[in-house]
Amino acid sequence: MITLAVETSCDETAAALLDDDRVLVSIARTQQIHSRFGGVVPEIASREHIRLIDGVIKEALTGCGIRLEEIDLLAATRGPGLLGALLVGFHFTSGLALRLQRPFMAVNHMEGHIYANYLNGCQPRFPALILVVSGGHTQLVLFEGVQRYRLLGETRDDAAGEAFDKGAKILQLGYPGGPVLAARAEAGDPGAVKFPRGMLRSGNLEFSFSGLKTALLHHVRGLAAGELANQLPDIAASYQEAIVDVLASKTADALRQFPVRQLLLAGGVAANRSLRERIKVVAGSMVEELVLPELAYCTDNAAMIARAGLARYLTEGASPDGLDAVPNLSLHQEREVKLHD
Ligand code: KG4
Ligand code: ZN
Question: Residue 337: CB partners within 8 Å, gap ≥ 6?
């Protein structure tokens, strides 16, 4: 079954084609224009999606030699994300589905991140525990069956990706800062600076990263001129370690409370090498199988949207007509949102 999916929830204009769960092609154009503003500008993101989307889809089709008529299923991100950005991909793709007379799937972006684990051969084993770590979300989710998600805990303030990005901004590493901060941390000593571990012993599965960001700001302000450049790898490594420590420790707590068969990582921060290594240790003998998404499918892409759309299509058929993008769509409210549409 050939699925074409489009993802435009933020600043990536992405299209992908899958043959069942196998990725034929996955193209993601990162909109570079935002870097000069130090963050994504929603209105500019929408305009860029409009400018790029047609070309990205055509490039995906020619990249794998598939003609429009050969597509069996279409899917696009419905939310969460920036409303204007979502609308571009959602309506372009649902319109194309109408023209081709093929079923269309409205996909939850976070469910897409989860299904990035199930590309190219790996299958779900329920129950599974998912550590969701993206730019906007940090959650521990129990995945009990297809479309059965139970939220065990989440962040009270910043998301893990946001903590990386804000840390990178304080360290003047540019935007998006997560990957740059992680790269600078490679050469550093993670024990050099003792940064706080928010809510580590809170006795629940909640997270907090805002205190860590403030601690970094104070630490940097206390440095003499020139010291930041010298100590950057150590500071970056210590800051990253504080984030990874909490994520790994809360995941271990969740596994003790909720025995599962499979452990998954989902979201952009799943690309972080240090987190991947620590999660391998945590998984140890506690789960039958640890699944880590391939690096190419950790950050926003359309292959994961196609895979989630396919899974949902096979269990419940096409999405109903008349749906629209929902900027704050959550995994757990989705059924309710659907009922109100
Ligand atoms: O999932 P994603 O692509 O977009 C959202 O849905 O939010 O996640 C983007 C986030 C950004 O905060 C980015 O800095 C972070 O993932 N990120 C990383 C790495 N790669 C991406 N954070 C730490 N280390 C990385 N290697
Ligand atoms: Zn994402």
Answer: 326, 329
